[in-house]
Design a protein that fits this description.
The complex is a heterodimer. By secondary structure, chain A is an alpha/beta fold. Chain A contains 26 helices and 13 strands. Chain A has helices spanning about 35-50, 105-115, 120-125, 130-135, 140-150, 155-175, 180-260, 270-305, 315-325, 325-360, 365-370, 375-420, 430-470, 480-505, 505-565, 585-645, 650-700, 710-765, 770-805, 810-815, 820-860, 860-905, 910-920, 955-975, 990-1005, 1020-1025, and strands spanning about 1-10, 15-20, 25-30, 70-75, 80-85, 95-100, 125-130, 925-930, 935-940, 945-950, 980-985, 1010-1015, 1035. By secondary structure, chain B is an alpha/beta fold. Chain B folds into 3 domains: about 5-250, Purple Acid Phosphatase, chain A, domain 2 (4-Layer Sandwich), CATH 3.60.21.10; about 250-335, no CATH class; about 350-415, no CATH class. Chain B has helices spanning about 25-35, 35-50, 70-85, 100-105, 145-155, 180-185, 265-280, 300-305, 310-325, 350-360, 370-380, 385-395, 400-415, and strands at about 5-10, 55-60, 90, 110-115, 125, 130-140, 165-170, 195, 210-215, 230-235, 240-250, 250-260, 290-295, 330-335. The chains are: A alpha/beta, B alpha/beta. Chains A and B meet through helix 6, helix 7 and helix 22 of A and helix 1, helix 3, helix 10, helix 11 and helix 13 of B.
Chain lengths: ~1050, ~425
């Protein structure tokens, strides 16, 4: 957007100001102080973004803002627009944009003109006065700063910003500046402590080695003492051994001497005497037993003579046993026969009873005549089934017929009753039906006509009411008259006022008032006339309508009368003749109901006729069925007769008889079988009895009843048993005698043996007799005693020598042994051994202590842990120190990296501003830059020394900031934000050279069409532009009191 | 055929603290502080289990300057245990455990033989009158003897060879440098195998066709000693073929793993990658704790995308520790390698980083005077007395400071 003209109606000190501008390039305004230059700037800003309350006139500043009004002519995308804003004082002003297409809103257009920028940005960048130029803070506002400083740090920039802080933090943590210990100090302390502990453990190893040596010495000393102790023990044992051995050795020697004086009785039996006595006793006992046995044998011989059995019954033993064995079987046969006889008798009785039950004329013989074949049974069943079927069918048809006939009769009766209720006596129902229908039709018509007449009557009444109301309304309503009166009065008043105004003030005003009055009066009259005509028209219409309705109603009423008289539609409930009121539907309903009943009766009558016809057909079929039943019955009876049964039409009775006959025949058959079996058994029994009798005859037994064969058998069996028993006894006696004899021989042999043994014993003892034997026994015993003593002494001696296997018996020592001397030696040696043992004990205790301490030292692994921790502490300390130095060493490099990064990543805006800086400062400053992450500007002078912007002189700083703004305006323009730049006395602090440089810079700046409005109060500055072909706009000075321009510029 | 086995360990460094461990939870302090002792116990147990003929220790078995009691105790108890099983122990001193230190140890068990010098007489190990092994110390001055040369010239024999196996233990005490005096002293030696520590340079090894076995410490002492650590079991079969096998014995396993940031979109993906790498690690028997140091590689955009800095890396390492640590079972501790530690390819640097390095290289050379200047300028209020200054300086190496300062470029600028 470019401003092509300014028109101010009222703004600040400006009144009715109008000025055309060059849309492209420079527009220089010169005006002395208080000419209103800044006001013009504010006006432009206010039109574009809204007036401020304090944009009031500079002269009078009251608490209440004064109205503001003006417009800007703008050129936007080759189209002209007018932006007008009018404000009454406090508000931002009402915006209107002229030249816009239909449908475009002013606000949207304006936003488009300013490319979406806000007032703050405009003030910071585009409309700049000296204060804005001088204030550094304006360049740090968010929007401006974002464009100016531009860069987001990015991760690399952020890293380079954070690193120095982190490194400082690391250095501080390890080795603080303030002299506190820090991590390094703590680590050093810990390392020192652990080293001290570790060094304190060093003597432990020396102690260990010393203990090893000590243990070795103790081991050697103990070995020596052990050797000495062993030697003493050995000597002591020797003497003790002598002492123990001497006594048994002496005993052995003496007993050997005595044994040599006794003769050798090696073979003498030591128990000869006792043996001799025993042998003699045994011999005598044996002889006694032999004698007893001989006596028993004699007794047995006597019994045998008595027990000899008879063999007569022995010959028949087999037959008797055979018959006896069969006894059980034949006993069963006899019992079975008896049972069968009883059963046969039972069958006969039952048969007789059943035959009697079958019926009169039934006998057992008749049962024989019954045909009892499967074929006969088949005929019986078939005939029964056929007969049963025909009978069932006939009965069923009879039942149906009866049921249907009853139903038809009932319905006839009901129909007659119904017709009586309806009052119908005609033979058929057709005529009553027709009458009912006609009646219904008539009533319906009557009702409709009555309703229509009533309706028409009602309408007429309504119209009458309406006409009455209309009559009332022929005049205007009161309120209308009031309004009309008001208008008239007002009109008169206005007319008078108009005249007065025409005279006193302006004729036009008076004329207007009079016209108003006339208008009011005329309007009132016209309304009245219109309203009354309308009413009249409506009344006429209503009257005509009512007349037509009345005519129609008369016609309908005449028709009603005709209908009633023709068809007699009089109301029977009232005494005088009045037509039926068919409008409420009651009579119609009654008529319709009657009609319905008659129709139902008609249908029922028709159904009854149909039923009668059916009954007639059924009767015919029933007769035919009866004939069939008779034929079937005859066939059935013939079948019964042919089979031998009684004739009967009762099938169940025939079946029952059939079952009885069958059961009776079965009984008869069973009875016959039983008797047959009895005969068989009887024959078998007889055979058995004959055998028993035959045996008795062979045995020549007399006096037995063979009709009871078992009795004979029992007797013979007893005799046989007795014979067997006596025979067994005889055999046992024989056996017994034989055994006794064998035993007696044996006893005799034993007696002989005993005799021989006695002789051998005496021979062995070399004795002649008993007394000689006794004598030799005494000598033998004495020798035995001596030998025993010698053995014991020898054993004692051996036992003692075995306790000391290393020691040997020396005869000479034993011979020279003196007890007293030996005891003395023993005492001395014991004493010496005890001393050696005590010394050993002490050495062992010392060794134990040393070993315990060695064990304790060996088990203690705490030194390993301490040394490990010391090593770790050393590593950590070394690592921490190295880290500290490495961090310190690299900090400088990191700073340099940051500087390089900074140098290579400056905002574009600053780079773009640099040419302007160079020009404006006449090449004194070559570089404009900012630090990483900070909103602070630096310039490098021609010696490349960096200087922060705050440290520059005021003028130079203004130039710097101006250059930045010029660059920003260019940058905005590249991005489509085209706004005029307004510079309000920004060069006041520039010297001549730099002012010229500013002119050159601005001339260069506007070459591409950028519009710049330069306000200046310095004539020389304006003349510089003038010399360059830019004619300034000369603004007049203002009266200091009135604030009015002394050379007023109007229109 | 009698079994022939030896166990070789080197740089046992009994009770020497592990370096570069970082912060250790209290419940792991004992495990970490006793790691070398545990490794030694396991060496002794391995010698017993495999019924070796001898245990050979080539240098730095302990650190004499530490004066550690626990080292003394462990050494003695281990040797006594081996003595009970009649397993010999042969020792050559090293730079940390010189001969004098060994001689100060009183009454080592009789099965321990400490060679006094590289000229010490060989020791024969026999079994039922037959010599199985000949153990002798050798040094840089040991020349191949004529029999050695003959052995080199003659074709190898096939079939069963019952000659004793000659094993040389490299003498590296007193610096193990080759001096003229040592070079002039010759020894006759025919070696089948030469044992030394992994510290031995080529100049300290004798010229020989013998199989050379370089053995590292059984427990990784620094973050760079990674993977399986332990002792070597040397076995000789009937054909006199020598085979070696590393027995992993270290209770603490150290690893340095690399996590690549390229293609990783989220920190959770990074964690998954790291966990996958952990799962690929083989399990070594006996490992109780894994100390894993993570190196993160990637160009600056990757660092920036994942918003990684030292704190974030430590947080990732801590969360990995939380995920993988199993109290009562295999423990794990993860830490991120300091960003300044590893060299970075120039292609991974961003512009700021390169600028920083370029500027830093143009700074004055880092030395003690420069360090003092920095301290004085940054902490002018605190005058440092000279004695204290020197004491402090012993903790600091100017070269290390410079290296780390260079490395700081990554710490600060990798994510820019």
């Amino acid at each position: 957007m470019k401003i092509s003209g300014i028109e101010i109606d009222r703004f600040g000190v400006w009144r009715n100001f109008s000025q055309q501008l060059r849309p492209n390039g420079l527009n220089v305004f010169y005006g002395p102080n208080e000419a209103g230059k800044t006001t013009l700037l504010r006006f432009i800003r206010g039109v574009l973004y809204g007036y401020h309350p304090d944009d009031g006139p500079a002269v009078r500043r009251t608490s209440k803002s004064s109205p503001k009004s003006g417009l800007l002519h703008v050129l936007h995308r080759d189209l002209d627009y007018e932006i007008r804003r009018v404000s009454r004082g406090e508000d931002a002003g009402l915006l209107t944009v002229s030249g816009a297409a239909a449908g475009d809103s002013s606000a949207r257009l304006l936003s488009d003109f300013v490319a979406g920028t806000d007032e703050k940005l405009f003030e910071s960048v585009f409309a700049v006065g000296l204060p804005e130029l001088q204030e550094f803070a304006t360049l740090t506002e968010d929007e401006v700063a974002r464009h100016l400083y531009g860069m987001t740090l990015g991760p690399q920039g952020q890293l380079l910003m954070d690193l120095p802080r982190r490194m400082d933090g690391e250095l501080e943590r390890l080795w603080p500046k303030d002299g506190h210990r820090g991590k390094l100090g703590e680590m050093a302390d810990r390392h020192r402590d652990l080293t001290h502990q570790s060094q304190g453990l060093r003597p432990q190893r020396d102690r260990y080695r010393a203990l090893i040596r000590q243990r070795r010495e103790l081991d050697q000393r103990i070995t020596s003492l052990r050797r000495k102790h062993t030697e003493l023990q050995k000597q002591l044992r020797g003497h003790q051994f002598l002492e123990k051995v001497h006594a048994p050795w002496s005993r052995v020697r003496d007993q050997k001497r005595e044994l040599a004086g006794i003769p050798d009785l090696r073979s003498f039996p030591t128990d000869g005497l006792s043996r001799l006595a025993r042998l003699e006793a045994d011999r005598d006992a044996t002889i006694a037993a032999r004698d007893e046995l001989l006596t028993e044998i004699k007794l047995i011989n006597k019994n045998l003579q008595v027990q000899r059995p008879s063999d007569s019954i022995r010959r028949f033993a087999g037959s008797i046993r055979a018959l006896q064995e069969q006894r059980a079987q034949w006993d069963d046969v006899r019992q079975r026969k008896h049972a069968l006889e009883l059963q046969a008798a039972e069958y006969d009785r039952e048969l007789h009873r059943q035959v009697t039950e079958i019926g009169r004329g039934w006998t057992t013989n008749r049962l024989e005549t019954i045909v009892d074949t499967p074929e006969a049974h088949g005929r019986f069943f078939v005939a029964a089934r056929e007969y049963q079927s025909v009978r069932s069918k006939t009965k069923r048809r009879q039942r149906w017929y009866k049921k249907l006939s009853t139903s038809c009769r009932d319905r006839e009766l009901a129909l007659r009753t119904e017709l009586m209720h309806l009052g119908v006596e005609a033979p058929t129902l057709l005529e009553p039906l027709n009458l009912a229908k006609e009646r219904l039709t008539q009533l319906t018509e009557l009702g409709q006509l009555q309703l229509q007449a009533a309706e028409l009557r009602q309408r007429s009444l309504t119209i009458d009411d309406h006409l009455e109301r209309m009559q009332d309304r022929l005049g205007l309503p009161d309120w209308v008259w009031l309004v009309l009166a008001f208008f008239v009065i007002a009109g008169i008043g206005l007319f008078a006022a108009g005249l007065s105004a025409g005279i006193s003030t302006g004729w036009l005003v008076g004329l207007i008032y009079m016209v108003l009055a006339v208008t009011a009066g005329g309007t009132t009259w016209a309304l009245k006339l219109e309203f009354e005509a309308e009413i009249q028209r409506q009344v006429a219409e209503l009257r005509e309508q009512r007349n037509s309705q009345d005519n129609r109603r008369h016609e309908i009423e005449n028709r009603i009368v005709e209908l009633v008289q023709t068809h007699g539609l009089w109301d029977p409930t009232v005494e005088h003749a009045a037509p039926i009121d068919a409008t409420d539907g009651k009579w119609v309903a009654l008529s319709a109901e009657r009609l319905a009943h008659l129709e139902l009766a008609q249908r029922e009558y028709q159904r009854i006729l149909d039923t009668r016809q059916r009954l007639s057909h059924m009767r015919g079929r029933l007769q035919y069925q009866q004939r069939e039943l008779g034929a079937s019955r005859r066939t059935w009876c013939e079948t019964l007769k042919s089979l031998g049964y009684d004739e009967t039409i009762d099938i169940n009775a025939a079946f029952a008889q059939w079952q009885q006959v069958t059961a009776a025949r079965e009984l008869r058959r069973r009875g016959q079988e039983a008797r047959r079996e009895v005969r068989g058994l009887q024959e078998d029994w007889e055979r058995y009895r004959m055998r028993v009798e035959d045996l008795g005859r062979r045995m020549r037994v007399e006096g037995l009843d063979y009709s009871q064969p078992f009795v004979a058998l029992d007797q013979w069996d007893g005799e046989l048993r007795a014979w067997i028993t006596s025979r067994q006894e005889y055999r046992r006696l024989l056996k017994d005698r034989k055994a006794r004899r064998a035993e007696a021989d044996d006893v005799q042999r034993r007696v002989d043996v005993f005799q021989q043994q006695v002789a051998a014993l005496l021979q062995q003892a070399n004795a002649t007799d008993r007394s000689d034997l006794e004598r030799k026994l005494q000598l033998y015993q004495r020798r035995q005693a001596i030998e025993l003593g010698l053995q014991q002494a020898t054993r004692d001696l051996e036992a003692i020598t075995q306790t000391e296997p290393e020691l040997a018996l020396v005869e000479e020592d034993l011979t020279r042994f003196r007890a007293q001397d030996n005891t003395e030696h023993i005492r001395r040696l014991t004493r010496e051994a005890a001393d050696a043992e005590q010394q050993l004990q002490e050495q062992f205790e010392q060794l134990g202590t040393v070993k315990q301490e060695l064990k304790t030292l060996a088990a203690d692994r705490s030194s390993s842990r301490i040394r490990f921790e010391q090593s770790q502490a050393h590593e950590q300390l070394h690592d921490a120190w190295t880290n500290w130095y490495a961090t310190a060493a690299s900090a400088e490099s990191v700073d340099l990296v940051g500087a390089m990064f900074e140098q290579a990543n400056q905002p574009e805006m600053l780079a773009a501003a640099m040419p302007f800086v160079e020009r404006l400062t006449c090449q004194k400053y070559r570089r404009l830059w900012t630090q990483l992450g900070r909103r602070q500007l630096f310039v490098d002078d021609d010696t490349s020394a960096p200087r922060p912007a705050e440290q520059l002189s005021g003028g130079t700083r203004e130039q710097l900031f101006l250059a930045i703004r010029l660059a920003m305006v260019k940058a905005f323009a590249k991005h489509g934000v085209e706004l005029p730049m307004v510079l309000d006395d920004v060069t006041v602090n520039f010297d001549v050279e730099r002012s010229q440089a500013a002119v050159d810079t601005l001339m260069e700046f506007v070459k591409d069409g950028q519009q710049v409005l330069v306000f200046t109060s310095h004539i020389h500055f304006a003349e510089m532009f003038q010399k360059r072909g830019i004619e300034p706009i000369w603004l007049p000075a203002r009266n200091k009191v009135t604030g009015l321009p002394e050379d007023r510029l109007a229109g | 055929m009698m079994a022939m086995r030896l166990l070789h360990a080197a740089s046992v460094q009994l009770d020497v603290p592990l370096r570069g461990v970082g912060t250790v939870p209290r419940d792991l302090l004992d495990l970490v502080s006793a790691a070398t002792l545990t490794a030694w116990d396991r060496i002794v147990d391995a010698a017993v289990t495999h019924d070796v003929d001898a245990l050979l220790l080539t240098g730095d078995t302990f650190d004499a300057e530490d004066g550690s009691l626990a080292a003394d105790v462990a050494l003695r108890q281990g040797c006594e245990k081996l003595a009970e099983r009649e397993i010999a122990v042969f020792v050559v001193p090293g730079p940390r455990d010189p001969l004098s230190a060994w001689q100060e140890i009183p009454f080592l068990p009789d099965n321990v033989t400490v060679f006094d010098s590289e000229a010490d007489a060989p020791v024969e190990l026999t079994d039922r009158g037959k010599t199985k092994w000949v153990i002798l110390p050798v040094s840089a001055g040991t020349d191949p003897a004529p029999p050695e040369l003959d052995k080199l010239r003659l074709p190898k024999k096939t079939g069963t060879d019952h000659r004793a196996v000659t094993v040389g233990m490299l003498w590296e005490a007193d610096g193990a440098a080759v001096t003229g005096a040592m070079a002039s002293s010759t020894r006759l030696a025919s070696l089948d195998m030469l044992l030394c520590s992994d510290r031995a340079g080529s100049s300290s090894r004798t010229v020989s066709e013998a199989q050379i076995r370089r053995q590292g410490s059984p427990q990784g002492m620094t973050p760079f000693e990674t993977g399986a650590r332990g002792a070597t079991l040397i076995e000789v079969d009937t054909n006199r073929k020598i085979s070696t096998r590393l027995l992993p014995l270290a209770p603490i396993r150290r690893e340095r793993l690399t996590a690549r940031l390229e293609g990783v979109r989220h920190r959770d993906d990074l964690c998954d990658q790291m966990l996958a790498k952990l799962e690929e690690l083989p399990v070594f028997p006996g490992e109780e704790l894994r100390l894993v140091e993570w190196i993160f590689e990637g160009a600056s955009p990757s660092w920036k995308r994942l918003d990684l800095d030292e704190a974030a890396l430590e947080a990732i390492a801590d969360s990995l520790t939380e995920l993988t640590d199993q109290p009562g079972k295999l423990r794990s501790l993860h830490r991120a390698a300091p960003l300044w530690q590893d060299a970075v390819d120039d292609s991974q640097m961003n512009e700021l980083w390169r600028d920083y390095l370029g500027i830093f290289e143009r700074q004055p050379t880092m030395d003690a005077a420069e360090l003092r200047r920095l301290a004085t300028e940054l902490r002018p209020q605190q005058a440092v007395p000279d004695g204290v200054w020197e004491r402090w300086l012993q903790h600091v190496s100017p070269q290390e400071v410079a290296r780390r300062a260079r490395g700081f470029g990554r710490r600060w600028f990798a994510g820019a």
